[in-house]
Amino acid sequence: MWRFRNREFTWQIGISVMGTILIMGITGLIWGGNAAFAAFFCSMFWCILHLYQENRRYLGMRMMAGQIDELLHGDELPEFKHFREGDLEILRDEIYKMTIRLKEQSALLEKDKTSLADALADISHQIRTPLTTLNIMLERMRSSDLDMDARRQLLREAGRMLSKIEWLVTALLKMSKLEAGSIVLRKETICMSEFLAEAVAPFEIAMEVHDKTCKISGAEEKTFVGDYAWTLEAVQNVIKNGLEYTPDGGSLLICCDENPLYTELQITDSGAGIPQSDLPHLFERFYRGENAGNDSFGIGLALAQMILSRENAVIQAQNEPEGGGQFRIRFYKTVT
Question: Domain for residue 92, yes or no?
Answer without folding.
Answer: no
